[in-house]
Amino acid sequence: MEPIAIVGIDCRFPGAPDAGAYWDLLMRSGDGVSSVPAERWAAADFHSPTPAEGRANTTQGGFIDDPDAFDNEFFTVSPREAAAMDPQQRLLLQCAWRAVEDAGMAPRRLAGTATGVFVGIMGNEWAQLHLTDYDRVTAQVGSGNGYCMTANRISYHLDLKGPSLAVDTACSSSLVAVHLAAGALLSGECDHAIAAGVNVALTPALSIFYNQAGLSAPDGRCKPFSAEANGIGRGEGVGVVVLRRLADALAEGQQIYAVIRGTAVNQDGRSNGITAPSRWAQQDVIGAAYRRAGVEAADVVFTEGHGTGTVLGDMMEAAALGHHHAGRTGKPMALGSVKGNLGHTEGAAGIAGLIKVALSLHHRTVPASRFAARENPRLDLRGKGIRLLKAPLALGRGTAVAGLSSFGMGGTNAHAVLETAPPRSPRPHSRAEETATGIGTAVFTLTAPSPEAVRRNLVAQADALSARRAPAGAVGWNSTRVKSGHGYRFAVSAADTDTLVGKLRACADDPDLLARFTGAPAGTARTAFLFTGQGSQYPAMTAGLYRESPLYRRYLDEADAALLPHTGRSVRDLVLTGDERVHQTRWAQPALFAVGQALGRTLGALGIRPDLLLGHSVGEYAAACLAGVFPLEAAARLIAARGALMQRLPDGGGMLAVLAGREELAEHLDGEPEAGIAVVNGPRATVLSGDLMALQRIAKGLDRDRIRTRMLRVSHAFHSHLMEPMLDEFAEVAREVGGGAPGLPLYSTLYGRPLDAGEAMDADYWVAHVRRTVLFGDAAAALLDAGPTHTVELGPSPVLTSMIRKVPPPAAGPRPAAVAPVRGADSTGADLADALAALWRGGLDPDWTAAYPERDRVPYRLAPYAFGTEHRYWTRGPIRARREPAVAGLRAAPDASAGPAEREETRAPERPVRPAGLLTLERPAPADPVTEVALAAIGQVGGYEVAELGPYLRLYEDLGFDSVMVMELKNRLEERLPALADLTVQDLLPKLASVGDLLSFLREQVAHGPHDAEERTA
């Protein structure tokens, strides 16, 4: 068969909360077996050690920690629904999410795809406890139980459209699920498959059965193929793998744990008992898997056996394997079973073995098998070409092949053949590719549904990154691909991993710092690009960015090449070498144009494109070029001519900055025809220009009126009548260059407003632009009224950012956030990375591919999502003698229609405070009966405390309501508010956007009655 790649893994097994801990447990031959947790089996009499009493013979088993913990808010599941759900569903949801992340994919990006979900499950004890308690069966209890829902929950919450099914073939269930998932991939039914197994032992029922059947080990431990073997010990756990066709995984550069070469499934048929194993069927299924995989028995280095530790089971399995391997006396096949570490995890046994084999092939080491020191002599393993793994087995170089068996109690057998992943070939790339991308510093991103969830995951990432060396570029690149999709966005830049770990820990420890680097964009982000004008230049401007960012280097080089025919020497070299001549007008203007347009094109390549444009005087050239007014070569010719012609003008002029508005200056300019207003930067920020003697006289008059002034260091009196001698020659160049209408909204400093649609920036525009007043303050005010969320200043230092703060705020909405990719003479790629991080936090979605060079765009497995554990859901089912202790956590709110005794029994304990996040805790004061009744009903239907319900909470997105819950809410409201008797679901549905909307609607309905409402609508 075509090979299948295992690209993602997550699991929770006894003593091993994740895949890393699982591998550690295996390598140190750890024991995950312990006493049965007190909350599992409801009454002490179940633990009777005496078989004659008809009970279990052991109180030991392999149990996972905290199976009651569930981050329901992450999946938008209401507390009431979470409390009704089988813990196996809850565990699978979280495990599946983490496995997809481990595969290098953001789970939300699978939404809408034909991804398949295949779950192996054998026990459904939660349903046995709850569906037989008829008085308490609710819609949530119904959907919270059933084999099918274990798979369907994953498909629903991840919005997956492929096949979704649960498989019960007893102990082989999860390996059969893998077999079916591989088949779906090979048939083209899906391109991604999630295969899983789960088992949670809620009752002692199977322990009693094993004891009655003579299969139970008194010490609760499986001892596979050992002389000490004396039966089954129960275990539990959950495991999920993400599968892809090998060719697809290789084409997309995914990391691969191992490759499934072939699988096979068969049945014992009518053997010597429905629960008895059949050697013949087992050896047939092993042979079939070998044939499908295209391997010989001699190729198989080791096999992960079913290995229950029962006398008959081990004997049959050894005989079946011996049929294929008996000739390997010189090089026997290694055999082990993870059941010695965990117990028999029943429905999850196959996936537990699969993950062990995949990790062994990945690490090229097979862990020793517990209880292997003394082989069972009756099995004659040596004569069958088999040896138990008493010590870890190093696989060495080259391809290694492994087998995996999983046999069902009812006779359904499965076997899989796996091999090591093919060596990863580095993607060939050219020197041009390497120099065309990258900003010089990595950006690490992470999203979560709440600030507390962000904090928790920062700690998890910092812990994982500090434990192993990793390149910051690969870490950042993978974070942008995987850690996305939630409402709260965190981002920081870092040049190396140590710096990144320090920043993550600092933000996790400091709420103010965390808030600074976390955004929660509520709407569409709009960016305004601001291009700095003359006067902001300095020697070696952007040299650090040019040195570190291949992307910026590319665009500044292109601008320099366009300018070179008109300037006669490299503007780039002059700028980067720190030449003081950059202050000369003939060089300053083309240099600022080159820097501005290079920064604009760099951001454009990074996926950050402007919605609005504004340039200050000479900065308008870069803005116009970016807006498509003219091509780069034409703009370069025009700006070079402008600077050169101005440089040739005679000296004698100057410019005076005045802290006053233009109206205040009118009387001071009367009688001074040699000076005038050159620039209006804001309501009280004006620049005068003209004859130097005239400016000095005006300055003295302003000083007498206590108006502050400052003479600017400039070479010429820009935007004054002293520019007129150059206008005719400049006009000739401008007419040859031409100029069209901008393709983006551009706010003109010539007119102090946005240019109208089709309004061209032609030769007449650019000639007038030289002479007339720069109305930056007016244009900036108009731009702010357009409602940008971010201003991005593109120039050598953020001069305009401080100016725009002095412009009156927009009529509606907050001021935009200010971003500067270059902050001054010391700026490097870190400032550009910080700017990109800030824009992403604000709601923009950069093209991260352009932010990283090819060498950084390689897979790296980040720590998976760390779910919250503060919410707990557990119950003992129909056994009601004892109430849950408060630490057990959250359960459904009591049903107001129940009797007093039942309400007391089901009363939810005090719940921990919900972390502030998407759920707003500012709730409406219940000042009227309608509000009190409605909030109580919402709380009862969802399982929330009334204190948690705020007006901005959305019933569907935040509180997890669905159509069934809406119907229940309607019924509860009608019971308590008779005025709503004629209310239909159609009336109610449009009013469910938020709690506040619903309350307003209900108050109006009760006040006026449904008939009045109908008349008003009519």
TrEMBL record:
One of its GO terms (biological process) is antibiotic biosynthetic process. GO terms for molecular function: 3-oxoacyl-[acyl-carrier-protein] synthase activity; fatty acid synthase activity. Residues 890-911 are annotated as: Disordered. Residues 901-911 have a biased composition (Basic and acidic residues). Gene3D superfamilies: 3.30.70.3290, 3.40.47.10, ACP-like (1.10.1200.10), Malonyl-Coenzyme A Acyl Carrier Protein, domain 2 (3.40.366.10). SMART domains: PKS_AT, PKS_KS. The keyword Repeat does not apply. PANTHER family: FATTY ACID SYNTHASE, SI:DKEY-61P9.11. This is Polyketide synthase.
